[in-house]
Write a structure and sequence with these properties.
heterodimer; A: 98 residues; 0% strand; B: 327 residues; mainly alpha; 2 domains
Chain lengths: 98, 327
């Protein structure tokens, strides 16, 4: 049991660092979601199921939903696809020119 | 392997702006003339002036970036950042290492307050779940404050993000929303069959779980806040699958206001009663019931239901306001 808990704690640290280092906002929100889920399991292990329910519902569910909505409103999710297609066009154009 | 990682790191360090920043710059520098057909002279001159000022500032920032002293400053800044981080990590780890062990009997939290909660909690509040007894009986005033804070936050989000008649004068987003009321669902698949079939099964189950968590708050883990959050998530799933048109059949802004106001008032009035009786030493007429039964623990059940309603409606209101600017 302690090994599992320690693995989960290590996962939390890795998640916290990965959220800072990811450039893609959508990916960092998803990493944050997984952080909250593992955190709620740790709450259960620490014998506070009340907190675990709240963490799973608010941290993993509602907060990330609001983050997704915000990303959509500032066109961060949309922008990525457009930039990708632009890149593709430039590459094709470059091949044609070269 | 190592070379690839090094290249990636270098690219990451030298990359000037991400896709999002590039997109934002493109949006900002787009000519605003396409919206207004014939702008009068004054606005043209003012916009030209603003543009030259912006360009001037941008050029000066660019020149400052290129200068040598600023590069040194940036390096110094990085070094200072690393120093501060390392110091903070060291200090915090040192503090954690001196804390008492988790769950040890000599822990300073093992004082007379928690002893009283554990020994007399069931007898005084009638709630089997000590946590709920604490939150909604001993510390009910705090919980009233929390519910009011949540309500205030929802109101502030409404003030900031709500679209009305005047907002399309200064917000392009509001203009788009006015011209195409369903622009919000433009990028989403209409009548997504998989989502709708999944929602048909999941929404009632999630709602039932939320109601169970709220009603059993005094018997099992959970309570008003967590159950309310679960029910709010169910409402969000329903809206995502079926759209705002179908939820407007039973949930409008008026409904939201009525439910939240009634719940807050009920909470405040019932707590006023128990404060009054408690402070004056009057015996409360509300029976505590048998511990373990669903109708027990006096006011705690009522307060749980109130908090559950407030949290459900507020979570849904957050979602709706974030998504289309009104409830």
């Amino acid at each position: 049991m302690t090994l599992v808990v320690q693995l989960m704690l290590a996962f939390l640290i890795i998640c916290a660092i990965a959220v800072c280092l990811t450039r893609d906002l959508l990916t960092s929100v998803i990493i944050y979601m997984s952080y909250s889920l593992v955190m709620s399991i740790i709450w259960v292990v620490l014998e506070s199921p009340d907190l675990a329910i709240t963490e799973a519902a608010v941290g993993a569910g509602i907060t990330s939903l609001l983050f997704f909505l915000t990303l959509k409103k500032i066109h961060a999710i949309q922008a990525r696809n457009e930039v990708r297609s632009e890149h593709g066009e430039q590459k094709r154009g470059g091949e044609r020119n070269g | 392997m190592a070379k690839a990682w090094k290249e990636r790191l270098e690219r990451w360090l030298t990359e000037e702006d991400s896709a999002l920043e590039r997109r934002m710059i493109a949006m900002q520098t787009r000519e605003p003339d396409e919206e207004s057909d014939e702008p009068d002279e004054a606005t043209v001159i003012r916009e030209a002036q603003e543009r030259t000022v912006e360009q001037d500032v941008a050029e000066r920032v660019h020149a400052w970036k290129e200068r040598r002293g600023s590069k040194l400053m940036r390096r110094l800044y990085c070094a200072l950042c690393v120093c501060v981080c390392v110091t903070m990590i060291f200090l915090l780890l040192f503090t954690v290492s001196t804390l008492p062990r988790f769950g040890s009997p000599n822990h300073p939290i093992n004082n007379e307050v928690s002893a009283r909660y554990i020994e007399k909690g069931l007898q005084e509040t009638g709630a089997v779940n000590i946590v709920t007894g604490m939150i909604l009986d001993y510390r009910a005033f705090d919980t009233l404050g929390e519910s009011s804070v949540l309500f205030t936050a929802a109101m502030v989000v409404l003030f900031l993000l709500r679209m009305d008649e005047k907002s399309d004068q200064y917000s392009p987003l509001a203009r788009v929303m006015r011209e195409m009321p369903h622009a919000d669902t433009y990028y989403e698949p209409h009548n997504d069959v998989i989502l709708q079939k999944a929602a048909v099964i999941l929404v009632p189950m999630v709602l039932l779980l939320g109601i169970y968590v709220v009603l059993n708050g005094h018997l099992s883990p959970g309570g008003g806040f967590s159950g309310g959050a679960i029910m709010g998530a169910a409402l969000m799933l329903y809206v995502t699958a079926f759209g705002f048109k179908s939820i407007h059949r039973f949930f409008r802004y008026k409904t939201y206001q009525t439910i939240v106001l009634c719940a807050l008032l009920t909470y405040a009035v019932s707590k006023c009663y128990s404060f009054y009786t408690g402070a004056n030493g009057i015996h409360s007429v509300i029976p505590l019931g048998t511990p373990g039964a669903i109708l027990s623990s006096g006011l705690i059940l009522v307060l749980n239901i109130c908090v559950g309603f407030i949290v459900t409606c507020t979570m849904y209101a957050f979602y709706a306001v974030f998504r289309k600017g009104e409830v």
